[in-house]
Each structure stands twice: as C-alpha cells, then as structure tokens.
Amino acid sequence: MCQRFIHTAVLFFVVGVSLGAYMGLTGNFTLVPVHAHINLLGWVSMALIGLLYAHYPHLQRGRLPKLQYWLHLAGLVLMMSGLALLKTMNDTSFLFMVITGSGMLIAAVLLLAYLVTARLRIECAG
Ligand code: HEM
Ligand code: HEM
C-alpha cells in the first residue's frame, strides 16, 4: 500500500503544480481551490500516509488500508472533478459530485484515524 500511496501522490503533485503554473501564466485563478486541494489532499496527504505505512508496515495489514486508499483516491478525483466543473461552468448541479467526493474522503480519513489509533503504539522522545 505504501508504494501505491506514494506513486499516486507524485502523480497528483505533477497535476497540482501544472495547474498552478497554468494559473500563474494565464492569470486565471478560477481553479485555485482545485489546485490547493490537489496539492494538499493529493500530494501532501497521500505522500504522508504512504510514508506512515512504509515506516510502520503493520498498519497496512488486511483489507482496511486498501479500502482507505480507494476511498481517498476516488473521493478526491470525484470532489476535484465536481469542483472544477462547478467553478468553470458556474453550475451548482455539480455540487452533488463535490459533496459525495468529500464524504468519501472524510470516510477515508476516519478509517485512517481508526487504523492509526488501533494499531500504532510509538514512544515519542521527550
Ligand atoms: C510550481 C508550483 C506551483 C505554482 C506555479 C503554484 C501557483 C499558484 C497560484 C498562481 C496560486 C493562486 C494565488 C492567488 O490566488 O493569488 C496558488 C495558490 C495556492 N497554492 Fe500553489 N502553486 C504551486 C505549488 C503548490 C504546492 C506544491 C502547494 C501545496 C503543497 C500549493 C498550495 C497552494 C495553496 C494552498 C493555494 C491557495 C492559497 C490561498 O488560499 O490564498 N501550491 N498557487
Ligand atoms: C474532505 C476534505 C475537505 C473539504 C470538503 C474541504 C473543503 C474546502 C472548501 C469548501 C473550501 C473553500 C473553497 C472556496 O473558497 O471556493 C476550502 C478551502 C481550503 N482548504 Fe479545504 N477542504 C478539505 C480538506 C482540506 C485539507 C486536508 C487541507 C489542508 C491540508 C485543506 C486546505 C484548504 C485551503 C488552503 C483552502 C483555501 C484555498 C483557496 O484559497 O481556495 N482543505 N476547503
């Protein structure tokens, strides 16, 4: 799972910075929230989760981490596509995609919180 998270994170990084460069070059900032969340929920969060799984491999045992990955990925893609359509077309009928995607993402985050609190015991220095 850690490799899958990190590979996906890097793909989001490429998309996120490309969108940032496009916004900077064109001066069109309509998609700022899409850019911000692709970078933060795609690149930063997924890379961090991948590193967490790599460092504590017992966290990725069983089916739950796989479900957490797919919920995070599908939720983010759905939320970002919905938000991009909503912003560019100015049409609130795409809100259901944003809401469904956010719900899936929140479920993925809750699942991660469960996995970490149930399975991780570490000694923090200090
Ligand atoms: C080459 C890389 C990048 C470029 C060219 C770029 C470009 C931009 C631009 C043009 C804006 C809009 C600024 C405005 O509204 O005045 C923006 C906003 C933002 N970017 Fe990037 N960006 C890059 C990478 C990143 C990365 C790696 C992250 C996060 C890890 C990030 C996070 C954000 C956030 C959170 C905002 C919204 C800031 C706010 O709310 O005011 N960006 N970026
Ligand atoms: C399911 C999770 C999330 C949802 C539903 C969500 C939703 C939102 C919404 C509705 C906005 C306002 C967008 C607008 O002004 O058009 C926003 C802005 C923002 N969020 Fe999130 N967010 C989520 C997760 C996160 C996370 C995890 C981070 C950081 C790690 C983050 C960072 C930001 C930033 C920096 C902005 C300002 C971006 C801008 O200037 O457009 N969000 N978010």
What does this structure look like?
The chain has helices spanning 2-26, 32-55, 64-89, 95-119. Helix 3 (64-89) packs antiparallel against helix 4 (95-119). The model has no long low-confidence stretch (mean pLDDT 96). By secondary structure, it is mainly alpha-helical. Helix content is 79%, strand content 0%. Bound molecules: protoporphyrin IX containing FE (2 copies).
Give a brief rundown of this model.
The chain has 126 residues and is mainly alpha-helical. The chain has helices at 2-26, 32-55, 64-89, 95-119. The radius of gyration is 16 Å and the shape is globular.
**Beta fraction of the residues?**
under 5%
Overall SS class: mainly alpha
- Report how far apart the termini are: 31 Å
Shape: globular
Named once each, the bound ligands are: protoporphyrin IX containing FE
What's the helix-strand series? HHHH
Number of helices: 4
Number of domains: 1
Low-pLDDT runs: none
Largest sheet: none
Number of strand elements: 0
Could you give the topology of this structure?
Blueprint: H1 2-26, H2 32-55, H3 64-89, H4 95-119
Helix pairs in contact: 1-2, 2-3, 3-4
